[in-house]
UniProtKB/TrEMBL annotation:
<dbReference type="InterPro" id="IPR000276">
    <property type="entry name" value="GPCR_Rhodpsn"/>
</dbReference>
<dbReference type="InterPro" id="IPR000725">
    <property type="entry name" value="Olfact_rcpt"/>
</dbReference>
<feature type="transmembrane region" description="Helical">
    <location>
        <begin position="272"/>
        <end position="292"/>
    </location>
</feature>
<dbReference type="InterPro" id="IPR017452">
    <property type="entry name" value="GPCR_Rhodpsn_7TM"/>
</dbReference>
<keyword id="KW-0716">Sensory transduction</keyword>
<keyword id="KW-1133">Transmembrane helix</keyword>
<keyword id="KW-0472">Membrane</keyword>
<dbReference type="GO" id="GO:0004930">
    <property type="term" value="F:G protein-coupled receptor activity"/>
</dbReference>
<keyword id="KW-0552">Olfaction</keyword>
<dbReference type="Pfam" id="PF13853">
    <property type="entry name" value="7tm_4"/>
</dbReference>
<feature type="transmembrane region" description="Helical">
    <location>
        <begin position="98"/>
        <end position="118"/>
    </location>
</feature>
<feature type="domain" description="G-protein coupled receptors family 1 profile">
    <location>
        <begin position="41"/>
        <end position="290"/>
    </location>
</feature>
<feature type="transmembrane region" description="Helical">
    <location>
        <begin position="130"/>
        <end position="156"/>
    </location>
</feature>
<comment type="function">
    <text>Putative odorant or sperm cell receptor.</text>
</comment>
<protein>
    <submittedName>
        <fullName>Olfactory receptor 10K2</fullName>
    </submittedName>
</protein>
<keyword id="KW-0675">Receptor</keyword>
<keyword id="KW-0325">Glycoprotein</keyword>
Amino acid sequence: MEWVNETLVREFVFLGFSSLAGLQRLLFVVFLLVYMFTLGTNAVIISTIVLDRALHTPMYFFLAGLSCSETCYTFVIVPKMLVDLLAQKKTISFLGCSIQMFSFLFLGCSHSFLLAAMGYDRYVAICNPLWYTVIMGHGMCVGLVAVAYLCGFTIAEIITSLVFHLPFHSSNQLHHFFCDISPVLKVASHHTHFSQFVIIMLCALVLVIPLLLILVSYIHIISAILQFPSTLGRYKAFSTCASHLIIVIVHYDCASFIYLRPKSNYSSSQDALISVSYTILTPLFNPMVYSLRNKEFKSALQRVVGRTISLP
């Protein structure tokens, strides 16, 4: 009798922006413009790095990987969110939700490990400059990116499998605009201890480990820079790390604020609004900081544009 009375969930309903019904068309326009600008800037970054040989260095190789990751990351969430802002029925199938969660986790986790790889690249460049081209060869760069994506894939596969093997009955309303871990766990049956386990695992593997690797790299970097004899040399060395440090701080501030803060302090609608920061605003902010402020990149972009215009 218990099995007959239970309803198996076959789709989920998004309620992330339900409290802002009167603003949904305005939000659609704003988010669409931001999304198109993000895609455009990342496309410019990737194209310039591929087309200009002066940027065929390990640092820009990792930057191209980061831009690809962010482009795919926004593609997983934003188009569906834009459609839902205009739709009356804001639903996603059970399978679609699991695919979205896996893709989001895969790209987000890979992003963290890519930042750690970029930290190691800066460590080698500053602490072992004479061996830099030997250590950071093409094979090493490809290997580090492959390991980053492999770690992201493994973590995403484990967490998604654990979440969607839970029983889902009756309630199918997600107070969010995409299939994030916490809102999906809230509608699952028997998830109290399990949800704590998933969040702890996510934080330990995705936030703590790459952050520790970055901190170790920068401890050695700062120690090496402080030994430089000239102030100009120290300034140039710090400037090569500044963009990476800004991206790391923004990334880990957003992720920690979402996944490490007490859940009882914020309502579900506030959670959804806060999540906009790392799904829309951070991918917009990163390319502007890392490339469009970079003099070397600007020069390369001018060369690529000049060659393109001069083509018959």
